[in-house]
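Deliverable D4.2, example record:
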Amino acid sequence: MSGFFVTFINLLFQVLLFAILGRVIISWIDPMGNMRVTQILRELTEPILAPIRSVLPTMGMIDLSPLVALLLLQLLQSLILRAI
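Output generated by the structure prediction step:
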């Protein structure tokens, strides 16, 4: 049964990581967010990125919240997998 949880946790975190990376890449293609895929990625990742963005200092046009989110998600994934 723990093998199922490990696989589920890995899959969940991989989906979140790819969604954040996808949002970063698509933001260069569709900065206004008019495409449906941009809206879906925004809905998936905004609950993770918004709290991080509110804590980070403003750095002009550069948004470092995806980088911080990726690092935190990888740390959280390893902590959860070690606990299981």
